[in-house]
Amino acid sequence: MTLTSDSAGGATPFAPPESGTVVVYRGVTLFDGTGSPPRPATSIVVDGSLIRAVMDDVDAAAFRAEGAEVVDLTGHFVTPGLVDAHQHLATPPDRPAAEAVLRRLVHSGVTAVRDMADDLRQIGDLARAARVGEIAAPDIHYAALMAGPGFFDDPRTHQVTQGAVPGEVPWMQAVTDLTDLPLAVALARGTYAAAIKVYADLDAGVVAAITAEAHRQGIPVWAHAAVFPATPGEVVAAGVDTVSHVTLLAHEAATAPLTTYKDKPAVDHASLVTGEDARLAALFARMREQGVVLDATAGMWASEALAGDDPEASERASRNTELAIALTAQAHRAGVQLATGTDYETAPGDPFPALYEELAFLVRRCGIPAPDVLRSATFVGARSAGAEHLTGSVEPGKLADFAVFARDPLADIDHLRTITLTVKRGHRFPRSAYTTTAPRENR
C-alpha cells in the first residue's frame, strides 16, 4: 500500500506513556476493588499504561532506587477508576458538548463509561480520540441498538441517524422474527460496538434469538430491564448480560400484559415499595444465579434533570424515586451485582458529574454500604462494560486506571469531591488542571 502522507495525524497530548516509563505512586491507602479491605502505606508501580506491581511502601524502595519517578501521595486514598455505566453522549450529536462532559468525567476520577446507544458515527470517533489521547476522556465502551419496527418513530432515533433511515443503519436496527440475525449482529459488530443493546417492542422469542446470536458471535447483550412485550423475567431468561433501569423491573409485577414501549401498564406500586415483593425476589434470585448485572440508574428520578416543572411530573418523579429506592435495596440484599449508571448529566457549569450523585443516592437513600457502592462503581462497572479483564481493580497486569482523593470516600461518600488526581492508562489528569466550561445546554 502506498501512503500519500507520513503525518502522525492529530496531536495526542493525553496519550498513555510508553512502556518502560516507570512511576511509583507511594503512601496511599488503597481500596483495590477486589473485595479486600483497604491497604494503608501502599505503593502502586506503573509501567507505561499498565500496573506492574502493588506492594507495601517499604518493598517499593527498589523501584525508587532504580530511578523510577516517585509521586508521593501520603495521606491520600486511592480507588480504581470509576465507571459510569449509563451515558448518552450523542443524542443528538454535539461534539463540543460531548467533549466537555468527557473532560469533566476524566478529571473526576472516571476512567470508563458505557455509552448506551447513540449516533455511533460520532461515538466511534470520540472513542478513538479518547483511546489514542487526542482528547481528555475516559475510555468509551458503546452499544449498537436493536428494537422492534414500532419504536422507530421515536424522535431520538431520527436524531442519531441524520442523513439515513432510522432502523436501517448498523448502529440502530429494526428487528422482527424474519430478520437475518447473523447478518444484523455482524453489521452491529462492524461499528466496533462492545455490545448489542436490546431496547423496545420485541417479544421474548426475538430477545432470546438476538441474545443467542450475539453470544455466538462473541458480543454481549445489554438490555432494557423490560422490553415490551418481553417482561423482565423473559429478558433475564433470554440470557442477557446486563439490564438497565431498576424501575422497569417493576413490570415483572404489572397489573396487565405488556404490549409496547409507549403503552406501559400500571404496576403494583404499594406492594413493590415494601422491598419485599415475592415476584421481584424470584427475579433477583435468578439474576444473581446467572450473574446478570443491574445498571440501576437508581437516582435518575431524583435528579434536577427529571424532577419536572409541574405537579404531575413531580409526582411521577417522586413515585419512581420511591420505587427505585425499594427495588435497588432489595436487589442488593439479594446479592445482585449493581453497576452505577446515570442516564443524565449535571449542568455544564457544575464542577462534578452526575455519577457522584448516583453514588451518594445509593449510600444515603438505598442504604447500601459505601464499600459495596465503590465496588459497584469500579469492578462491577467494568464488568458491565465487558472490560473487567482490563480495568476495574488495582492489580498487576491491569490498566493503570485509578482515582486519588484527599479524604476517604468510605468514611463519607461526599469525599469523592476531594478528587486530586485521575490516572487513566498511566496518563495523569490533575484535578487542578480542570476548569468548568461556560454554562450551556448539553443534553
Structure overview:
By secondary structure, the protein is an alpha/beta fold. The protein folds into 2 domains: about 90 residues, Urease, subunit C, domain 1 (Roll), CATH 2.30.40.10; about 300 residues, TIM Barrel, CATH 3.20.20. The chain is about 30% helix and about 20% strand. The strands form 2 sheets. Strands 6, 7, 8, 9, 10, 11, 12, 13, 14 and 15 form a 10-stranded mixed sheet that branches. Strand 1 and strand 2 form a beta hairpin. The C terminus is likely disordered.
Distinctive features:
single chain, 443 residues, alpha/beta, Urease, subunit C, domain 1, TIM Barrel, 2 domains, 10-stranded mixed sheet, 8-stranded mixed sheet, 12 helices, 20% strand, globular, disordered C terminus
How many DSSP E strands? 18
How many structurally independent domains?
A: 2
* Chain-averaged pLDDT: 95
- Strand-and-helix sequence, N→C? EEEHEEEHEHEHEEHEHEHEHHEHEHHEEE
CATH architecture grouping of the largest domain = Alpha-Beta Barrel
Number of helices: 12
